[in-house]
Amino acid sequence: MDGGLFYLGLAASIIFGLAMGSFNNVLIYRLPRKESIVRPASRCPDCGVRIRWYDNIPLLSYLILRGRCRNCGTRISPLYPFVEVTTCALTVGVYLVYGFSWATVQYMILAWALVPVFFIDMFHYIIPDVISLPLILIGLFFAALKGSHVLFHNFIAAVVCAGGLFILGLLMTLLLRREALGMGDVKLIAGIGAFLGIQGTCFTLFLGSLLGAAASVPFLLWRKGNIRGEVPFGPFLAAGAVSYILLWPLTGKLVQSLIAGLTLY
After folding, report:
1. Does residue 40 register a pLDDT over 50?
2. For 110-136, what is each residue's pLDDT tens digit?
3. What is the 3-state secondary structure (H, E, C) of the chain?
4. For the ranges 17-21, 69-73, 112-116, 241-245, which has the lowest average pLDDT?
5. Cβ(195)–Cβ(135) below 8 Å
6. Mean of pLDDT over the chain
7. Are 108 and 23 in contact (CB under 8 A)?
8. How far apart are CA 245 and CA 238, in angstroms?
9. Residue 43, φ and ψ in degrees, nearest 5
10. How many angstroms from the chain centroid is the CA of residue 179?
11. 8 Å CB contact between 104 and 93
């Protein structure tokens, strides 16, 4: 790739990433409260004064205002710039891995959607349908662009993996006598399946389960007020899917070689 074109794409990735990070903050704050993501305009949650456009520039405004509201001086949560930086980092990461391609657009959209899923499920124990259900349609649309065989493969991945997770959750619910897995997780894995196919979705489930098991004790200690003793699965599914997007093109051949070697052994 030409050097100038590469840096132009990099700059665009940073700008789009920060802009989507700002939008993700809107989703994270408003969707659990069932508020419109369009109106009203952004306001300080403490004093209610509308935030001016020059105080709403992703990351930059937070740094200039030193993390406080210009009007009342109330401290703004550091979660806001963290979400913006995280979304930007994922956007740039996808661009660096896939370059100028349809795959970049496809995986950026998935990564952008998984950021609010991560934080909403972590703090509120829900995965909004308004995020997970469109992912299924968008994922199948990108699959269709690659041909009918890819569309069929990803459709089967969405159905089989979501169905398998639903049955597993049902069995765990009967065993534990309480809800063990929400339908939000099932819909989310269907969306991930529509984007990533069988291989990517199985990787997501495997790594998400490992991460969830490893983080369960620290998470419950952190959320001491969670008397139900529940650990949301959505954040770990999101982490697994993002890991596949960013790492599989770099490590996939090595993993496949190791699996082949173990099989022969």
Report:
1. yes
2. 999 999 999 999 999 999 999 999 999
3. CCHHHHHHHHHHHHHHHHHHHHHHHHHHHHHHHCCCCCCCCCECCCCCCECCHHHCCCCHHHHHCCCECCCCCCECCCHHHHHHHHHHHHHHHHHHHHCCCHHHHHHHHHHHHHHHHHHHHHHHCCCCHHHHHHHHHHHHHHHHHCCHHHHHHHHHHHHHHHHHHHHHHHHHHHHHCCCCCCHHHHHHHHHHHHHHHHHHHHHHHHHHHHHHHHHHHHHHHHCCCCCCCCCCCHHHHHHHHHHHHHHHHHHHHHHHHHHHHHHHC
4. 69-73
5. yes
6. 87
7. no
8. 11
9. -135, 160
10. 23
11. no
Contact 22, 58 (CB under 8 A): yes
Task: Measure the CA–CA gap between 41 and 161, rounded to whole angstroms.
Answer: 39
